[in-house]
Design brief:
The chain is mostly helical. The chain folds into two domains: 34 residues, no CATH class; 31 residues. α2 packs across α3. The longest helix is centred in the last third of the chain and has 14 residues. It starts with 14 loop residues before the first helix and ends with a helix. The relative contact order is 0.07. The model has no long low-confidence stretch (mean pLDDT 87).
Length: 86
């Protein structure tokens, strides 16, 4: 017999019903109904290298350290923000 449910936990028949169900429930309530699963993720990054002025590099490192993130992550965030505003 084919199941018409989109979710084995919520027994929902639509994504809308599923969303309503999870708005009022927590996954920890259904630990016995869950199972381990695995998946692979391949993240591709394109690297380019560019020279930075020493003062810019130092400031980038200082700000990144304050935020608890690597300088390259902060550089990407700042560049993305600037590019989005163009």
């Amino acid at each position: 017999m084919k199941k018409n449910n989109k979710s084995s936990v919520s027994k929902s028949k639509s994504y809308e019903q599923m969303g309503e169900f999870w708005d009022s429930h927590d996954l920890t309530e259904f630990g016995s109904k869950t199972k381990k699963t695995g998946f692979d993720i391949e993240i591709k990054k394109d690297k380019i290298y560019c020279a930075l002025d020493k003062s810019i590099s130092n400031k980038l490192k200082m700000l990144a350290n304050k935020r608890g993130i690597p300088p390259d992550v902060l550089a990407n965030l700042l560049l993305q923000e600037k590019l989005n505003s163009l």
